[in-house]
Amino acid sequence: MKYIHSSKNPQVKQWKKLHTKKERENSGTFLVEGFHLVEEALKIEDMVLELIVSEEVEIPPRIDYGSVSMTQINKEVVKELAETETSQGIFAVCKQPKHKQVDATSYLLLDAVQDPGNLGTIIRTADAAGIDAIVVGNGSVDIYNSKVLRSAQGSHFHLPIIRGDLFEWIEKLKSDGIPIYGTSLDNGIVFTEVEPTPSYALIVGNEGNGIQTDLLNETTKNLYIPIFGKSESLNVAVATGILLYYFKKI
Amino acid sequence: MKYIHSSKNPQVKQWKKLHTKKERENSGTFLVEGFHLVEEALKIEDMVLELIVSEEVEIPPRIDYGSVSMTQINKEVVKELAETETSQGIFAVCKQPKHKQVDATSYLLLDAVQDPGNLGTIIRTADAAGIDAIVVGNGSVDIYNSKVLRSAQGSHFHLPIIRGDLFEWIEKLKSDGIPIYGTSLDNGIVFTEVEPTPSYALIVGNEGNGIQTDLLNETTKNLYIPIFGKSESLNVAVATGILLYYFKKI
């Protein structure tokens, strides 16, 4: 085990760089914080490259970290790395998975979801609803942003989340015969008019502007959720939950 | 019109106190920020006690503020009052409505919802789903917290939100013959086993612990939303949306 007890250590600076999207992309890695996320990451083979643990933390026996290399740090370094107010003092450097091919029948496509809390909650909701794969288009917040990771509560490690061009994905899904449903406040049909099928793709969009028009023009159908009261719209994560659970046809 | 151009003015200190729950309760008022919330507040008669507007802001003609008193402030005071990063420079002091009696058939009851973003999103969702009244029990974050107000996007002004004792409310609703559905991860039936009726009350609970057991024992039935993937639970606002829209039976 290595020991790093100074926040000036170059390794600490290197880890801290993983708070930025640029460094995450350059290195193909990301940093998770807290027992729950670290445990979820460790369940996936070859996901965790390195564990970073406070000297004040005792790792409970239930956590099997195998031969993953571990560095012990002190309070000062914890403070430097933490992105939560009361850090649990445990971190993991993880490898960004590459998903060249996915074997999926249900998809959630995201067009420019910008709030990290919303993106994380959407990922958690898609996981709960049994969606097979998520495709995140351009203009969305980085999926490995620490707030996205926290809000998703480990769902990053449960289903493939692919960054890709939504136009290309729609073309591919169409050629596979998968119906693609957009969501729109202005045009479209009430979502309950669609008969749910196990294989489908749903697109949800930006918090303020919804899905870009060019994408809406490429879908099989566009759906809306009726508003019965006086609010103007639903939060995008809430809307996603309503639609995905409707499609489960419980 | 009054002018206040120093953040040291005692009136500014008084307004700033409305950032605290204690002062909001003592005064029976609360502060909203931004064009959208101020406009929604002004639509309700006698809701706005006072407008506070930056000298850099021009109030568009669509906003009818009638005879509401207005104070002009400068950048320095805006900075002092603002709770958003980029303030729109418009604020309103509002009166906390008193709802002794409500004329409602559908209710949402909240047991110790603690995250302001969640509480606001739940209020917005209940509004969208056409819920008639919300009852907020003890242990929840203050409904007039600025983050709750922002997340609810004006729904505070669309339906009665009552602070009350949930045990008393359940007793009252039961004696009115209204079915009360709790939500629980462990016990209960799949929500789709309940036949939706226009008159009902749904209870949702704390982010970590759910609804307290003593309340679950008082309900007509307790419902759960099945989890199909590997996430442990749904976000409480997302779960609320799924259930309220199921009960709309669209």
UniProtKB/TrEMBL annotation, chains A, B:
Residues 31-100 form the RNA 2-O ribose methyltransferase substrate binding domain. Signal peptide: none annotated. GO terms for molecular function: RNA binding; RNA methyltransferase activity. Residues 1-12 have a biased composition (Polar residues). One of its GO terms (biological process) is RNA processing. Residues 1-20 are annotated as: Disordered. Belongs to the class IV-like SAM-binding methyltransferase superfamily. RNA methyltransferase TrmH family. This is 23S rRNA (Guanosine-2'-O-)-methyltransferase RlmB.
